[in-house]
Amino acid sequence: MGQLSEQMSAGPARIRVDVVGGEVPEHVLENMDFLNYRLADVRLEPVTLGDPDLVWERDAGATSVRYDGRMLRFEGDWAPGPLQKSIVALLALRMEEQGLHPFHSSAVHYRGRGVLFLGGESNHGKSMSQIEACRRGGRLISTETTVIDESGVAVAGSKTVFLKSRAKGTERADKASPEAGAQKFFGAEMPAMVEHLDPADMEVVIVPSIDGNYAPGTVEMIPFERQFQTLHSLQNYLHLNELLAPGWPMPLMDTDELRRRRAAFLERFCTRPYFLIRAATPQVLMDEADRVI
What angle do CA 162, 226, 283 make, to 5 degrees? Predict the structure, then answer.
């Protein structure tokens, strides 16, 4: 019986993953592309944690997954995709313990201000808005995930604009080619993107809604809908609305206490200006955004 132990970190958050079986892989995951796309900068490091956060028993007879409030246990033959999603969720929980909040969002430093494009409930245009903002001279903070501390400052962010491929077990027929939207709006060549390297206060939040049928419109959001949309963004990392595999939903990895703490953070964070902007294209959306930034 063999065992592989690997420790992964995202900023100060750390988890340990153990794989047990007659044959164990060289690494838990073949690559870290999805983790870096979702959590900015995930690294392998020497194992220092005494107990695992995830155990995968590969030789168990029946396939199962369960969470006991501390450790996630997989048994049987699982594809890489479900393991990736579970590792993201565990790291997101550990990040919250460190006072860091991964937002499903993109962000730029634009016209001297930190601007957050929030994925929110519908997730219609955060990437295209970020690309257009960079085309207009904004500096890139994040593409898919913005890690924000308790004071509302973005301290890290993913830099991969598109996820090129999905691991086995997470394929999606409903997702268009990653570059299809960008080519429609920006042509064959992507705008240049210069990174903003320093921490940046998120001074303005925009919830984009890009649809070819929309007439331009900008509305300042009331406190409830600010917090509602932002909670969707934070909860995204726990994958609670997803199946890991047919018949196996993502285990519940959230508690009332965690949700209350998250809501209290949102109440503080959502005091900054929030705007819902509808537009047919990212260019028109940023024309609207220029009026309020």
Answer: 45
DSSP string, 74-139: EES---HHHHHHHHHHHHHHHHHHTTEEEEEEEEEEETTEEEEEE-TTT-BSHHHHHHHHHHTT-E
Q: What is the pLDDT of residues 106-130, one digit of tens each?
A: 999 999 999 999 999 988 999 999 9
Taking the C-alpha atoms of residue 150 and residue 218, their distance in angstroms, rounded to an integer, is 28
Could you give the C-alpha distances from 33 to 91, 144, 153, 160, in angstroms and in order?
A: 15, 12, 25, 9
* Run of H or E residues at 230: helix 223-235
Question: Would you say residue 163 has pLDDT above 60?
Answer: no
User: Closest by alpha carbon to 41, among 114, 130, 102, 121?
Assistant: 102
Per residue in 32-47, pLDDT (tens digit) is: 989 999 998 899 999 9
Q: Average pLDDT, whole number, for the chain?
A: 92
Whose CA is closest to 157, among 173, 137, 141, 171?
141
Predicted TM-score (pTM) of this structure: 0.91
Measured CA angle at 90 (ends 115, 224), to 5 deg: 45
